[in-house]
Recover the amino acids of this structure.
């Protein structure tokens, strides 16, 4: 009988540093699939597209936006069934592993709150100056987009170089995501993971970056 690979937080970090990441085939699948796409989705940190309507939302500030306030809640919301997506690649094993990475300082989340309720957000992994976006969700119009703008502002203020989206979707392409060949991605990745950066820069630095998207 073949031995099942035991996935640990240390293995996850090593895989990300080499350009690979895991996904589940379905919610109840005990095994993970490891991927390293030939063309990788990224959002250039100087190329985020914020349309006119989203700028209006950002200026109106309908959500309270936080960082790392409820990482498990964001992961759970991303994994929850939604219209047109009854299953998920975020298995219980993935949720446990990434929550462990959060406790070790690698996993980060952005949360959007309305009247004290979590209504949108995203989570991912930060290694050096690279941030690997994993998933996002929205229960209010534009909440996930607002979370992404706040993420980019934070990454820019914190000295990050790379925002990896793994794949691209119409939603992400509309906000500036592009695909690059794997060799180009791995070259950028090698530089980024060994460059110091912080997910918690001064609040005034984040505010200055946010002002770029609301003016």
């Amino acid at each position: 009988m073949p031995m099942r690979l035991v996935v640990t937080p240390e293995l996850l970090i090593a895989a990300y540093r080499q350009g690979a990441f895991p996904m589940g085939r379905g919610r109840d699948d005990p095994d993970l699939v490891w991927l390293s796409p030939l063309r990788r989705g990224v959002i250039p940190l100087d190329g985020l597209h914020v349309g006119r309507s989203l700028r209006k939302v950002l200026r109106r500030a309908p959500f309270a936006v936080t960082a790392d306030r409820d990482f498990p809640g964001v992961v759970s919301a991303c994994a929850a069934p939604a219209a047109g997506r009854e299953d998920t690649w975020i298995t219980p094993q993935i949720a446990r592993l990434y929550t462990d990475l959060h406790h070790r300082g690698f996993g980060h989340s952005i949360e959007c709150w309305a009247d004290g309720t979590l209504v949108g957000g995203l989570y991912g992994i930060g290694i050096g100056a690279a941030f690997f976006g994993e998933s996002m969700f929205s229960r209010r119009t534009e909440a996930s987009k607002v979370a992404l703008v706040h993420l980019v502002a934070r990454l820019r203020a914190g000295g990050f170089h790379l925002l990896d989206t793994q794949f691209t979707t119409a939603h992400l392409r509309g906000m500036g995501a592009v695909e690059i060949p794997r060799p180009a991605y791995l070259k950028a990745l090698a530089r980024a993971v060994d460059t110091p950066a912080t997910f918690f820069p001064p609040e005034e630095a984040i505010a200055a970056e946010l002002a770029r998207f609301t003016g």
